[in-house]
Amino acid sequence: RAEGAAHIVGEIDQALRPYESIAAVRRQLSMLHPLGHASMLDRLAEASVVKRLDGLYELVLDPAVLGIGVVAQDLEAIESKLWDALSSLEAPIFVTRGKLSSILDAATATRMMQDAPSGSRFEEFGMAGHALMIDASESLGTSLAAFLEDVSEA
Questions:
Q1: 114 close to 86: Cβ distance less than 8 angstroms
Q2: How far apart (Å, rounded) are the C-alpha atoms in residues 71 and 55?
């Protein structure tokens, strides 16, 4: 988990700079998500920036993503509450992981499935990182639709 957090912080640090254009943001996204569909990266670039008064663009980020006001003890308490919440679920869940993800490791995904309700499903996507909706959108959509169909028939 520490590596995943460091990865996110590194990406945010790299992204927290002004961009000359939305096209420059798009190029950055292409480097972060080389498997992402062009149209999705285009929409993400347009939706994730704001134009400053000086004409440059900057990313719009939730303060929670930046870690403002979060200390280690808070993260431990939050993690504990999340594991408790997972074990209290009654409906099946669909756990997905990009095999190239440095954020959700295989051990954590396995633990999630151990605590998951009956009928839950795990799927790992080989050529994807943590951002499955970008890196493997079609495969994820197909798998999610199949899971929802199976759950609705149960």
A1: no
A2: 35
Tallying the residues shown for the chain, one arrives at: 154
Residue 59: how many CB atoms within 10 A of its CB? 17
Tens-digit pLDDT profile for residues 10-68? 666 666 788 999 999 999 888 888 888 888 899 889 988 889 999 999 888 766 655 55
Other beta carbons within 10 Å of 132: 22
Segment 62-107, tens digit of pLDDT: 666 555 555 566 777 888 888 999 999 999 999 999 998 878 889 9
What letter represents residue 96's amino acid? Answer: T
Q: Is the pTM of this model over 0.70?
A: no
* Enclosing H/E stretch for 97: strand 94-98
Q: What is the bridge-based pairing of β-strands 57-59 and 49-51?
A: antiparallel
Nearest to 125 by CA among 147, 104, 153, 97: 97
**Alpha helices (H) along 72-118:** 72-88, 106-115
